[in-house]
Design a protein that fits this description.
118 residues, mainly beta, UDP N-Acetylglucosamine Acyltransferase, domain 1, four-stranded parallel β-sheet, 1 helix, 5% helix
């Protein structure tokens, strides 16, 4: 996405005060909102042999909101936001971290059974 496209998708950030180094994938659904503080850094690439270097991914689902504070950063991190995720100021998120506000399935074990084996 271009900066103009990001701004149309309600992404509030100052491109002159944020850095995206390497690959960062953004998945923004209808009515999603992202606020990124100044001096945020998203860094991707192979990091000391402890991860695969597949890049950062930020996914904000419909009607969800992601806020990342100023002077924060992440390396090869995935953020899945289904309702609301808030990351404060001066937060560093390490390699391979996965942040989610949903576990994507029911908490009732009966709903997760493989019905084909019954």
């Amino acid at each position: 996405m271009t900066i103009e496209e990001l701004l149309r998708h309600k992404v509030d950030f100052n491109p002159q005060k944020c850095s995206f180094i390497g690959r960062t994938f953004l998945e923004l659904e209808k009515n999603s909102k992202i606020v990124i503080g100044d001096y945020f850094i998203a860094r991707s690439g192979v990091n000391s042999g402890i991860d695969t270097g597949n890049g950062c991914k930020i996914a904000v689902k419909s009607n969800a909101e992601l806020t990342i504070g100023k002077y924060s950063g992440m390396t090869n991190t995935v953020i899945q936001c289904h309702k609301k995720v808030v990351i404060g100021n001066y937060v560093n998120i390490g390699v391979g971290c996965l942040i989610m506000d949903s576990n994507f399935h029911s908490t009732d074990w009966r709903d997760r059974l493989d019905r084909k084996r019954m």
